[in-house]
Q: What sequence folds into this?
C-alpha cells in the first residue's frame, strides 16, 4: 500500500516529469560526445576497457536511471525533523525507515515507467548502443537497479537523519550531492580511475553501487562471473546501509526520549 502511495504521489508531477526527461536528454548529448571524444583519442580497448557502443550505453542508460535511483533532491526526512513533524511518523505502527523506503520504491517504479525510456530512446536514435548478448544481463540489470534504489535510499536516509543532531542537514546533504555524483559513476565511469582506487571505492563504500554497478551490468563491461559479482556487492551494501539507517533511527529515537521529545 505504501509503495502504491509513493507511486501515486509522484505521478501527479507530470510537468516535472516531462521537464526532467528533457533535461536528462540534453545533458546526455553533452556527456556522450565528451566520452566518445575521449574514446577516439585512446588506442586499444578504449578508456577503462569500454568500446564506443558500451560508453554510449553507459551514458544514456545512466541518464535514464538518474531519476529512478534518485541520488539527489530528497530532503523530506530532514525537513520533517526540523519542523517536528517527525513526531507523527514515530507514532505510526510502521518504522520511519520502512515507511519511507516503501514510498521511495513507489517513486522509483514511477520513474522507471516514465523517466527511463525517453533518454534511452533518444540515445538509441542518435548513437549506436550496445545490445546485451547474454541471457542473464537483463534480469541481472533489473535486480541491480532495485538494489541501487535501496542503497541510495538508505544512504540518503542516513544523511537526512543527521538533522536529529544538527537541526539543519543542508551541509551533509550538499556533501552527499557532490560525492554521490562523482564517486557513484554519474559523471564518468569509475574504471577510468586507477585500479587500486576503483577497487577501494567498490569494497569500502556503497557509492559505486548507485550507478556504476547497474551501468556496468547492462554494458556487459565484465565477464559473466564478475558481472554477477557486482550485483552481489550491491546486495551486501543494500543490507549494510539499511541496517545502518535502522540503527541511526533507533539512536535518534532514544535521543528524542532523553530530550523529552
A:
Amino acid at each position: 500500500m505504501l509503495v502504491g502511495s509513493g507511486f501515486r504521489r509522484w505521478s501527479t508531477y507530470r510537468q516535472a516529469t516531462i521537464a526532467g526527461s528533457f533535461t536528462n536528454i540534453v545533458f546526455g548529448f553533452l556527456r556522450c560526445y565528451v566520452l566518445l571524444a575521449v574514446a577516439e583519442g585512446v588506442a586499444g580497448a578504449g578508456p577503462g576497457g569500454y568500446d564506443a557502443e558500451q560508453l554510449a550505453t553507459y551514458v544514456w542508460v545512466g541518464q535514464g536511471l538518474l531519476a529512478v535511483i534518485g541520488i539527489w533532491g530528497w530532503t523530506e526526512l530532514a525537513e520533517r525533523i526540523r519542523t517536528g513533524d517527525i513526531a507523527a511518523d514515530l507514532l505510526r505502527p510502521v518504522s520511519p525507515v520502512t515507511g519511507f523506503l516503501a514510498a521511495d520504491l513507489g517513486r522509483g517504479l514511477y520513474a522507471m515507467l516514465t523517466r527511463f525510456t525517453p533518454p534511452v530512446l533518444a540515445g538509441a536514435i542518435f548513437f549506436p548502443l550496445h545490445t546485451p548478448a547474454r541471457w542473464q544481463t537483463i534480469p541481472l540489470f533489473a535486480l541491480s537497479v532495485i538494489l541501487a534504489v535501496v542503497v541510495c535510499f538508505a544512504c540518503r536516509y542516513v544523511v537526512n537523519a543527521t538533522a536529529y543532531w544538527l537541526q539543519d542537514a543542508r551541509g551533509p546533504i550538499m556533501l552527499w550531492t557532490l560525492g554521490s555524483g562523482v564517486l557513484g559513476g554519474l559523471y564518468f565511469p569509475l574504471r577510468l580511475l586507477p585500479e587500486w582506487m576503483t577497487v577501494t571505492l567498490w569494497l569500502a563504500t556503497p557509492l559505486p553501487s548507485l550507478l556504476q554497478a547497474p551501468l556496468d551490468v547492462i554494458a556487459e563491461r565484465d565477464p559473466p562471473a564478475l558481472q554477477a559479482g557486482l550485483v552481489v556487492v550491491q546486495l551486501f551494501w543494500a543490507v549494510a546501509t539499511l541496517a545502518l539507517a535502522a540503527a541511526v533511527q533507533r539512536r535518534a529515537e532514544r535521543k528524542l526520549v532523553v530530550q523529552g521529545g
